[in-house]
Each structure stands twice: as C-alpha cells, then as structure tokens.
Amino acid sequence: MYDVLIIGAGASGCAIARELSRYELSVCVVDRESDVCEGTSKANSAIVHAGFDCVPGTLKAKLNVRGSEMMPELSKQLDFAFLNNGALVLCFDEAQIGGLEELAERGRKNGVKGVKVISGDEARAMEPALTDEVAAALYAPTSGIVCPFELTIALAENAFENGAEFRLGCNVTDIRKTDSGFTVLTDKGELEAKAVVNAAGVYADKLHAMVSTQPLKITPRRGEYMLLDKDAGGLVEHTIFQQPTKMGKGILVSPTVHGNLLLGPTAEDIDDKENTATTRGGLSEVRAKAGLSVKGIPFGKAITGFTGLRAVGDTHDFIIGECPDAKGFVDVAGIESPGLTSAPAIGEYVRDIVVGILSPAEKSSFKSERKGITHMAALSVEEKNEMIKKDPAYGTIVCRCEGITEGEIREAIYRPLGATTLDGVKRRTRAGMGRCQAGFCSPKTMALIAEKLGIGIGEVKKNGVYGSEVSVDA
Q1: Are 80 and 372 in contact (CB under 8 A)?
Q2: What is the pLDDT of residue 249?
Q3: Catalytic residue among 49, 208, 238, 258
Q4: Handedness of CA 236, 242, 243, 249 (dihedral sign)
C-alpha cells in the first residue's frame, strides 16, 4: 500500500509529487498517458502570470502570486528555461481605461509589485510594434514566460530522484473507499493507498464522483494557438495581452523562452474532453485578434498550430481540498489559468493538506536540485568541444532546425523517466519543434528510441502507450 497516490502527471501533479517527496512517504503518480505533461500542461500559453487578474481573496490569487514568486529560484534549482520579460495588457478604447485601473488596483491588493497603468505612447515606446489603436496599457514587470514541458518534466524527475514512483500508461477506471484508505482500480491492476490526490485535469470531476456525492463539474475550454518561427520571435519582447473578459485574457502575442512567437488562445467551452483539434475558424480568429494588438505579424512564418483544453470549474476558483464525505481524498480541480504559474505553489498547498492527514517525518536526504538535459546550441565553442571529447555523439546533428545532437536525444531517452516516444523526445530536447516539424530528424530519433526499447523502428510511437510486450522501463 502506498501512502499517497497522485492521479495526474501534469504540472500540478508533478509539483505535488516533488513536495511530498520531501517526506518519509511512499508516493506514486499514476497517469493514463505514456509520459508526464501530456494534457493541459503541454498546450498552454507558457506564461508566468504576475497575478493582477485574479479576484483578491481567492485561492487563485494567493497561489498565482506565490507561484510567480517561486519561479525564478525554482528555475535555477531544477534547470528549466524561465524569463522575466514583463507583460502589457492593452486597452483600445479610452472609455475603458478605468478597467485597467481596476486591474492595477486588484494586482496591488494581491501583492503584485510594480503594476501600473501607462499611456498608449508609453506602451509603444516599450514595444514599437504595438498598433496605433492602443489607448493605454497595464504594465506588469513581474510577469514572465517559461517552458511548460521543461518545468513539468523537471518537477517529475526531481520527485523521482527523491523516491516518488511513476506508473505511466496506467488508466484509472474506478476508486473505492476502504477502511484503510482507497483501492484504485486501473487497467494495469489494483493499487492501494492511504490518501489519494485527484489532479486529473479535465477528468477531475469524473474521479471525484467515484468517491463523493458533493457536486463538482469541470468544463473543457478549448483554446487554439499559432506558433511562428524563430525569425518572428523578436517582434515583441513583452507578453502582450488584451483587456480580459469573462472568457479569459484574450488573444496574446508573446515571445517564447526558445525564441518563437506565440499567438492565442481562443476560448470555447465544449463538452468533449478529448477534442484538441485545430479549426480553420479558430486559427482565423487568432490571426485577426492578434493583429489588433501588434502590427506586422508575419503570419506566413507560422510553423504549427495546436489546441489545449483548460479545466474550468464551476466555482471560478481553484478547487483544492479534502472531500468532506471521502476523508483522505484530496481534489486538485479547476486548475485553469493561471494554473501553470500556480503549480509550484499548488504543490506546497497540497503538501500541507496531505501532511496534515498522514503526519509524516521530513527526510534529511531530500535533493532540491536537478540537472537538465545538455543544450549544445547554448554552449560556448570551448564547452561544445569538451562535450564532444567526452562523447562524440554530441557532435552529430540530428535536428537541423533546432541544432539538436544525437547526444542530447540519447540523454532524453536514457535519463530518469526518459522519453519513449517522438513527442517525449521533442518536449525534452526540441528535436522536431523547428520549421520542418520533424520532417528531417524523425527517422534517426525513432532509431534511437527503438534501440532503447528493443523494438523495431516501425513500432515506435509518436505518442501513446505501448503494449505489454514492450518494456519502457528497460
């Protein structure tokens, strides 16, 4: 029997696992997908929100600001990409400037530092590509951008190194309350746990209903994005938002930590928890609305589009806590924006709940740091030569668009919780994320995965779970 079973290996689930791995607890993370970061955590705006949009006094506000404060130091400890680039929220109508002032005051109440309203001319001085229609802007200097894949994978690897177990490709089908805790039924057999943490994203309501009669509803909110090539990445330096509505923060224009330009998302509430298709109408909306904020966006440099699903709860706040009618079952639900920003703080918050339930001792051996995968493109010539001396595979380019080497791909495959699919390698190394979108590098990457798993190259998956005949733990 495990002490704690966490269902969901997204940013929140992995942050919770890392925090609980500080204690003398047996922790297991279960996810139906073949890898961590396969749900909402892989398809979002990659923003570290400052915290001015959340209603003061809400859990969202508290955890947003705390998560934002944690991110710079955490990025150093766990070696993932983070940039404090600041944000501008644009107003296009002088009659609506009062709304920006309200946002600024909300931010101050939440403890956001340096937030202020500036004129359209001041905003254009900071970002010359802003349109002439911008009448004013809210400036939030503490906002940032992050790589959501690197963040989630780093949290997971550090939790794993500190003793947390991960059962991936393991789908939960039912949960039963027992005298000693819970029996969790999966397609890979039964698991026992004293406490269960429900961090299952858009499916959190389904799992909640297995043990509780308390109402909980999660609505998937589909958001479509466009990603532009690195040639377009320098068009803006700050994250450019539009004045928010009840459906979110509007279409943003933002650089990414890797130098691309990101546009989106749309916002459409749907019933289908699996519908991540992009649509012609959705991408047309992204183009039209992004053009209201920024002039001269080179849409012809788009290299891909993608869709994410946000898990929207009916309380309009994060739903985090122990179920009153299922003691030991902790919901972590409705983690929509600013969920990615809040994830490290959610880890702390849920840790405290679980520690209150189980009263474990702290470990003396907890390792707070983790070293990420080598990025050859970021090294100096001397550092590259040294790496190639140690292992010639770091001198063989596999992904021409991103400059990713065989050595980096091997690192991604053979490290703890290593990649077993093309998408897993892509999220860890960026091999396949460039302008050719894996057209050149896939065969070699597939060969390296096949070598590790002991399967034929034709059996390698882009994503998804392998059958029982393939051992991904070998």
Answers
A1: yes
A2: 67
A3: 49
A4: negative
Residue type, 257: V
CA 140 – CA 118 distance, rounded (Å): 10
As a whole number of angstroms, the distance between CA 229 and CA 261 comes to 7
DSSP 273: T
**Mean pLDDT, the chain, integer:** 96
Q: 2-41+149-217+315-358 maps to which CATH number? A: 3.50.50.60
> Tell me, what's the pLDDT at 472?
84
- Counting every residue, how long is the chain? 474
Task: Work out the number of other CB atoms within 10 angstroms of the CB of residue 323.
Answer: 19
Parse the chain into domains and list their residue ranges.
Answer: 2-41+149-217+315-358, 83-146+221-312, 376-459
**H or E element that contains 73:** helix 59-78
Question: Rounded to an integer, what distance in angstroms lies between the CA atom of residue 82 and that of residue 345?
Answer: 16
Q: CATH for 376-459? A: 1.10.10
The domain made up of 83-146+221-312 has a fold known as D-Amino Acid Oxidase; Chain A, domain 2 (3.30.9)
> Catalytic: 208?
no
SS3 assignment, position 30: strand
Condensed to tens digits (0 to 9), the pLDDT of residues 313-326 reads 999 999 999 999 99
